[in-house]
């Protein structure tokens, strides 16, 4: 879960010299940053360092990743023409640096832990393209979604095709699992998710079925969309802290895995609370198959790395004790 | 629901000359702005124009309401001392202007529609005081809540006492219903809400019981907290669009009322979609007693007033047809 990041002094040191785009375009730097949390925190998986807007460049979208803001799109898409001019994405040509970074990272990791590849979900990417950056109310996105079905469908169709290609290429390059970050779907009603989003995410997950690579479906604030997310697809579902994990499993059904659930803010508290909150999750899980202990969202920049180290140790110890 | 606002040209005209604080401190202007939506849109209730930080001034907190940002607190509270120096709030002395505005508004409305008074919920106000303004991740709030129980409890205790006094005074001044806006509780896990917030909101609602004034409990993104919100209290619960209204009623129980549910962004679409989305809500409600048709959150500034007028007409007509 966004494991490399500002909370790590070793990462900040690299970021002093290079911006995010420079890092993810340089396979050497990218793989270095990707393995940092494995080496420094002792976590059980690595997740490729990248940004969800990365593949948009190959589609002809110009953007900047601004400090403290996030991605800012130069020309937001608000009309059909904007969706029409989006180019086809071919990961082998457009994201060769990332595929190379994956290969390099796999070598560095030397099978110690699995490597997770990812991309943005179609709704979340569409919202960046339409709003022009991170949004609060998704006003332009929803207005377009409700009022201009031709543009919406073309945009979502192109994004779904591009993300399928991107994830397939990441799998070929060697990632052991993939994650679709559809971070903002929680701002939609279940009815709107079904009507405007579900089929596109479903298409992506369908195309990645049976490849022996677990598919993780991620969102935040979406505990009321769990049934819909399951319909869209995935083998493992990410839940945030707004729903107890046992309730989430009841809603999803026990044939899928769950990751997440710990509020990243808990890591800002003292170690006793970190342990008791984590123990609460582990007790609710009762050793159920398919549980991946994780935070419900990205690590906060204010997190002390030693707290994360303690958390990892505690979870490892807890599992040993109870198994 | 935040009915007076930037989407109304008549409101913008007043705002060109006066800032928000000037308007709510001037009973004449305040009541004028409060009745605008009743006269312009034909809605069935008026809600006092104010800001949830209003009573903080009487507690000795210095703040500004900044355009496009919201309230900015001069000295955020991060330690015990900050909570200790908060002064007692006495609405009759500290918010006399608001009580006068209520009386004036009651006269202006002349019993055409009921008048709703409101205040911020204790968690939401605490988060403003701790973060220093509107937040995204509630990092400082959660850190304090998890790690410094003495400061947290004192702060929540003082806010609960102050808000009880403020709402009691509003009821005495003549409001017909009150609303507690605990807008940000949806960022808490159900366990954290129970542990750190519930008892304070409960105290407020208990003190306002049996006064013949319906108590509305408002939050957004909190569909997973409905059971906890009901425990805290209220006669009517506000739900946003992330949960179908019939499902919300199942979770809350049929002995309480529900308001809300329509995504304010729907009002940005064309009238056919506005009607079909509203009809969907009304059909799910099936004329159940205690339903208050409303948006799930505030009117967006981009809303065309004529769309709101059409919505009000449609809902009135629908109810007539089906009754």
Descriptive account of the structure:
Chain A is an alpha/beta fold and 323 residues long. Chain A folds into two domains: 9-238, TIM Barrel (Alpha-Beta Barrel); 239-323, no CATH class. The first copy, chain A, is built from 15 helices and nine strands. A seven-stranded parallel beta sheet of chain A has the order 1-4-5-6-7-8-9. In chain A, helix 14 (271-285) links the parallel strand 8 (257-262) and strand 9. In chain A, helix 3 (27-41) packs parallel to helix 6 (96-109), helix 7 (122-131) crosses helix 9 (149-173) and helix 9 (149-173) runs parallel beside helix 11 (198-207). The longest helix of chain A is centred in the middle third of the chain and has 25 residues, at 149-173. The two termini of chain A are 25 Å apart. The model of chain A has no long low-confidence stretch (mean pLDDT 95). Chain A binds chain B through residues 137-139, 142-143, 146-147, 186-192, 221, 223-225, 241-244, 263-266, 268-270, 273, 280, 300, 302, and chain B through 137-139, 142-143, 146-147, 186-192, 221, 223-225, 241-244, 263-266, 268-270, 273, 280, 300, 302.
């Amino acid at each position: 879960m966004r494991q490399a990041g500002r909370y790590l002094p070793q990462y900040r040191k690299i970021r002093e010299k290079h911006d995010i785009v420079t890092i993810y375009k340089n396979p050497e730097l990218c793989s270095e940053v990707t393995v940092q949390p494995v080496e420094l925190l002792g976590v059980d998986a690595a997740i490729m360092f990248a940004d969800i807007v990365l593949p948009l460049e190959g589609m002809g979208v110009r953007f900047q990743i601004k400090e403290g803001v996030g991605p800012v799109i130069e020309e937001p898409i608000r009309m059909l023409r904007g969706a029409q001019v989006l180019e086809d994405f071919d990961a082998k040509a457009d994201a060769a640096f990332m595929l190379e970074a994956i290969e390099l990272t796999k070598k560095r990791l030397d099978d110690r832990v699995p490597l997770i590849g990812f991309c943005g979900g179609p709704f979340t990417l569409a919202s960046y393209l339409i709003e022009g950056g991170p949004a609060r109310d998704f006003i332009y996105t929803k207005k377009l979604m409700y009022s201009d079905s031709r543009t919406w469908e073309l945009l979502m169709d192109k994004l779904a095709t591009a993300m399928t290609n991107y994830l397939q290429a990441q799998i070929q390059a060697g990632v052991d699992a993939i994650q679709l970050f559809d971070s903002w779907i929680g701002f939609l009603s279940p009815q709107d998710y079904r009507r405007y989003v579900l089929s596109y995410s479903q298409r992506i997950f369908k195309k990645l079925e049976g490849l022996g690579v677990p598919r993780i479906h991620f969102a935040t604030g979406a505990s009321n969309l769990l049934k819909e997310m399951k319909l869209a697809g995935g083998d493992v579902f990410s839940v945030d802290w707004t729903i107890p994990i046992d309730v989430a499993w009841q809603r999803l059904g026990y044939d899928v895995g769950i990751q997440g659930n710990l509020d990243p803010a808990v890591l800002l508290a003292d170690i006793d609370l970190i342990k008791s909150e984590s123990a609460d999750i582990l007790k609710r899980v009762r050793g159920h198959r398919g549980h991946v202990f994780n935070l419900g969202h990205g690590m906060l920049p204010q997190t002390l790395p030693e707290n994360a180290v303690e958390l990892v140790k505690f979870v490892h110890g807890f599992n040993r004790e109870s198994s």
